[in-house]
Design a protein that fits this description.
Blueprint: E1 3-7, E2 10-12, E3 18-25, E4 34-39, E5 46-51, E6 58-60, E7 68-73, E8 78-83, E9 92-98, E10 108-112
Parallel strand pairs: 2-10
Antiparallel strand pairs: 1-3, 3-8, 4-5, 4-9, 5-6, 7-8, 9-10
Length: 114
């Protein structure tokens, strides 16, 4: 079955950086576009970034453009989210998802606070 395991979250000060990873299994990873979403307390889950199957096309939410970078390694069945210049409003649980598949992982908590 589809499994998505997010990792790399933690507590970081404003202006800091984190790199999230999402290890995928149970499907042909290289055939699916991948996305990162986040959900802050009391808010709906929102799309943060997306990448196509080969990594040649990437899209970002306006709120993270220029600070976050999505990438993937199809040889490792893993998608990444490099987050720089983090802000308190980036605090959320971050999830990855394969486009067209309904499964979600458990997410990884990112907290940006001084």
């Amino acid at each position: 079955q589809v499994q998505l395991v997010e990792s790399g979250g933690g507590l970081v000060q404003p202006g800091g950086s984190l790199r999230l990873s999402c290890a995928a299994s149970g499907f042909t990873f290289s055939s699916y576009a991948m996305s990162w979403y986040r959900q802050a307390p009391g808010k709906e889950r929102e799309l943060v970034a997306g990448i196509n199957t080969v990594g040649g096309s990437r899209k970002y939410a306006d709120s993270v453009k220029g600070r976050f970078t999505i990438s993937r390694d199809n040889s490792k069945n893993t998608v990444y989210l490099q987050m720089n210049n983090l802000r308190p409003e980036d605090t959320a649980v971050y999830y990855c998802k394969a486009k067209g598949l309904g499964s979600w992982g458990q997410g990884t908590q990112v907290t940006v606070s001084s």
